[in-house]
Write a structure and sequence with these properties.
Oligomer: single chain
Distance between the termini: 64 Å
Radius of gyration: 27 Å
Largest sheet: 9 strands, antiparallel
Number of domains: 1
Structural class: mainly beta
Length: 157
């Protein structure tokens, strides 16, 4: 009888420990699809005078920012951003020492009355990468009103 009682208590204590063990809950933070731009058909061609680039870029619309789908092209000789076909998008491609490219993109959009917003992103890629994504790393804007200007500036983590 004592052995049966001991066995019952031992088994119940094992189950108690098992049920008292911590449970892990995984929470996945959904990433806003508008914060990742999709590049396709990336191409570079170089000559002694410099390198040309061309790529298509797609940005998904969000409630606070319009989407876009455009083509960008230019040369690495240009030191500033160059307008893409959609004039709300600018791009700059710079040669890296590691035989790669830094692709920088700027998206601008405007909302009446007098508000303008910007998003920036960049990615380091190689010439062989035809498709890649560019994460948005910074958003900022300014809105004018009778009382003055409001400024938004946000760096992404």
């Amino acid at each position: 009888m004592q052995f049966a009682t001991f066995l019952l208590v031992a088994l119940l204590s094992i189950f108690d420990i098992t049920f008292a063990a911590p449970t892990y809950h995984y929470h996945y933070q959904t990433v806003n699809p508008a914060l990742t731009w999709h590049v396709s058909n990336f191409y570079t061609g170089c000559s002694p005078g410099g390198c040309d680039y061309r790529f298509d870029i797609l940005g998904i619309a969000a409630p606070n920012s319009p989407g876009f789908n455009t083509t960008c092209n230019g040369t690495d000789v240009e030191t500033d951003y160059t307008f893409c076909r959609d004039k709300h998008i600018k791009a700059k491609v710079t040669a890296l020492k590691s035989r790669g490219w830094k692709v920088e993109v700027l998206h601008a959009w405007f909302k009446p009355p007098g508000a303008e917003f910007y998003a920036e992103g960049s990615a380091n890629v190689t010439s062989t990468m035809r498709n890649f994504t560019i994460p948005v790393t910074k958003t900022y804007g300014v809105a004018w009103a009778d009382e003055g200007a409001s400024i938004l500036d946000h760096e992404m983590a």
